Amino acid sequence: MIGSRNDTRLLFPGLAGFYASWSEISYALLRVAVGAILFVHGWGKVTGAGLSGVSGYMGKLGLQPGILFGGAAMFIETIGALCLLVGLFTRFFAAALAIEMLIALIFAHLPKGYAAGAGGYEYVLLIGAVCFLISLRGGGPYSVDRAIGKELFLSPRAVERHVQAIFQKLRLPGTEDDNRRVLAVLALLGH
Questions:
Q1: Sign of CA dihedral 65, 70, 73, 78
Q2: What is the pLDDT of residues 84-116, one digit of tens each?
Q3: What's residue 191's pLDDT?
């Protein structure tokens, strides 16, 4: 059948065993590298500007309340990144990091263009895409999730309750359409 995986032939067939044996290890290395990169980025916020500085920056970007967005960014980029690194609650934190990168892309980097050197969205797009893919696949065989045999999971109803509580706390008009959109995104993420 044309287009199936069996049609693909390696340029160097002798490397097939190498590729097969390194497939899961390379995925773990990618997850660990992204977790380490994001942790260093988040730790810079903790030891640099701190919560007040990061909150002020979030407020200037229009992300209100700044303390909520600043605190969330610092938590996700440190604790979440460490969890991604070791593969603990991998899907949850990878999805949270992907969402954070999307917010950063839209509010901070998109106006500056593509090039990361000019503050553009190149870097956050790449990291966000990788985190999204990790959220779909999970921690893999070399993760704490696999070792304990569990993953963090929220039912759609529990997510809906959390979303409604967040909308109420922020005094946002959380409608049924908002809840359906959030649930649709979570369904895409495999939750």
A1: negative
A2: 999 999 999 999 999 999 999 999 999 999 999
A3: 44
Of the candidates 68, 64, 35, 38, the residue with the CA atom closest to the CA atom of residue 51: 68
Length of the chain, in residues = 191
Q: Is 92 exposed, middle or buried (0-12, 13-18, 19+ CB in 10 A)?
A: buried
CA distance 93 to 161: 19
End-to-end CA distance of the chain: 33
Q: Which helix (H) or strand (E) holds 151?
A: none
Helix and strand numbers, DSSP H then E, in the chain: 9, 0
Q: Exposure string (b/e) for 50-84, b if CB count within 10 Å is 16 or more?
A: eeeebbebbeebebeebeebbebbbebbbebbbbb
- pTM tops 0.85: no
